[in-house]
């Protein structure tokens, strides 16, 4: 019998999918549960897949790969989608796709399957990645293909003796990994509704923290990658978990985003990403010290492109390789330490230092040790202003007359209107 490899989460959709794929496609199902730091009892999840009818069930540990090949490059790039979303879900998809393909190859499977709906970004990320890595593999997306409501699925599960945890119905759709937690659906679909307390699982409500004293952390980076907390070196996933906990206690990292999905829908998602928020601000603080003005300006453009590309499922592209190479090169001097202060709902950068710092006290100071050549400023200003003063005298000043005001950018419109009135009066 042909085999399909299913990305199995243990939830209702993928549990039903195990039986549905068997019925509909007459294929054996191998369930693969991928650990990207989604802190469930994965042994229990994997065992359940067998009970439901999977011929094999595997747990694949993707944590360090996720951190080293997806999260750190995105951090180094400063990749944040639409200025808000640190891309946790989006970053995990291409890794999960790659691991599914690897298992499919090992097991000689002809298909891979995932539990995405037909409305979201994740189906695109999975399908594009799988098609790119293994164009011969068939993609099965049961939830996109069947037309079952949640109640239909529960009924299907009952009919087929599929053990599901019928917990009090969770009104939200949640996806989580080391880099963050994404929550949508339910009351959150009303963009005017404030997220209720039960949306949050990783962060305290900042307004409930009256007695919590601020705390400080020193984060050390090597080539743009965080390597130590308070001078203690640790593995990437541990560092991220620690910051998720610590910053989460302070209610840091809550994000409420109306985002533009690739498929054209605007959707409202609540994110919890304490470590991502702290690390992005610390990393960019270190870059303020170690990158030049022009590098910073250009890197912002790249950061936006990089974020779009991740969001839009184009990880396995030549463009990504190109941007990643640029980003890596920018990080060669981004080493040093940033001091952050965590307080209620707030992460503040209070100090930064680097052996590669471009900050020069001799140039910056206003005291007597000043080394800056003040006279050179005069000549600089003269040439910097030259095109402006030339154009003002030739064009801008004559058109507004002595009463005019260059601050008013509507002057030219007034002028045009006056000209028209004059012309009409003459006619
Ligand atoms: N909107 C986010 C993205 O496209 C998260 C998607 C998954 N969200 C969820 N609640 N299941 O990356």
| Main β-sheet description | 5 strands, parallel
What is the global morphology?
globular
Please count the beta strands (DSSP E, at least 2 residues each).
14
Kindly name the structural category: alpha/beta
CATH superfamily of the largest domain: Argininosuccinate synthetase, chain A, domain 2
Using only CA atoms, what is the Rg?
28 Å
Biggest sheet, strands in spatial order? 3-2-1-4-5
Mean pLDDT: 94
Report the uncertain regions.
none
Structure notes:
By secondary structure, the protein is of the alpha/beta class. The protein has 2 domains: 3-173, 3-Layer(aba) Sandwich (Rossmann fold); 180-364, Argininosuccinate synthetase, chain A, domain 2, CATH 3.90.1260.10. Helices cover 46% and strands 19% of the residues. It contains 14 helices and 14 strands. Strands 3-2-1-4-5 form a 5-stranded parallel β-sheet, sandwiched between helices. A 5-stranded antiparallel β-sheet has the order 10-9-8-13-14. The chain has a 4-stranded antiparallel β-sheet with strand order 6-7-12-11. Helix 4 (88-107) packs parallel to helix 5. The longest helix has 27 residues, at 374-400. It is globular, with a radius of gyration of 28 Å. The termini are far apart. The model has no long low-confidence stretch (mean pLDDT 94). The protein binds arginine. The site of arginine has 11 residues, from helix 4, strand 6 and strand 7.
């Amino acid at each position: 019998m042909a085999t399909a490899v299913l990305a199995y989460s243990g939830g209702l959709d993928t549990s039903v999918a195990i039986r549905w794929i068997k019925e509909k496609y007459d294929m054996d199902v191998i369930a693969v549960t991928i650990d990207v730091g989604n802190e469930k009892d994965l042994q229990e999840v994997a065992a359940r897949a067998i009970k439901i009818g999977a011929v094999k069930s595997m747990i694949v540990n993707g944590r360090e790969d996720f951190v080293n090949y997806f999260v750190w490059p995105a951090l180094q790039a400063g990749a944040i989608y639409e200025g808000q979303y640190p891309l946790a879900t989006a970053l995990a998809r291409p890794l999960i796709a790659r691991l599914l393909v690897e298992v499919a190859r090992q097991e000689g499977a002809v298909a891979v399957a995932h539990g995405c709906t037909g409305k979201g970004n994740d189906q695109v990320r999975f399908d594009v990645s799988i098609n790119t890595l293994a164009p011969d593999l068939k993609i099965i997306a049961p939830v996109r293909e069947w037309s079952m409501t949640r109640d239909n699925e529960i009924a299907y599960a009952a009919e087929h003796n599929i053990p599901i945890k019928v917990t009090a119905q969770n009104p939200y759709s949640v996806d989580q990994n080391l880099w963050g937690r994404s929550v949508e659906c339910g009351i959150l679909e009303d963009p005017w509704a404030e997220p209720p307390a039960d949306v949050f699982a990783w962060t305290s409500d900042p307004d409930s923290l009256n007695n919590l004293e601020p705390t400080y952390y020193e984060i050390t980076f090597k080539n743009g990658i965080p390597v130590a907390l308070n001078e203690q070196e640790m593995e990437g996933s541990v560092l991220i978990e620690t910051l998720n906990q610590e910053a989460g206690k302070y209610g840091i990292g809550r994000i409420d985003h109306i985002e533009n999905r690739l498929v054209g829908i605007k959707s409202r998602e609540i994110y919890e990403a304490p470590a991502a928020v702290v690390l992005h601000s610390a990393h960019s603080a270190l870059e303020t010290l170690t990158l030049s003005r022009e590098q910073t300006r250009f890197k912002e453009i790249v950061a936006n492109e990089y974020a779009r590309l991740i969001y839009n499922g184009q990880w396995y592209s030549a463009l990504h390789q190109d941007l990643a190479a640029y980003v890596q090169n920018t990080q060669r001097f981004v080493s040093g330490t940033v001091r952050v202060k965590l307080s209620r709902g707030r992460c503040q950068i209070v100090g930064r230092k680097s052996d590669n710092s471009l900050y020069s006290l001799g140039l910056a100071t206003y005291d007597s040790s000043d080394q800056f050549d003040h006279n050179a400023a005069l000549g600089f200003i003269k040439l910097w202003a030259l095109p402006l003063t030339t154009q003002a005298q030739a064009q801008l000043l004559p058109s507004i007359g002595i009463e005019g005001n260059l601050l008013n950018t509507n002057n030219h419109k007034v002028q045009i209107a006056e000209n028209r009135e004059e012309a009409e009066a003459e006619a």
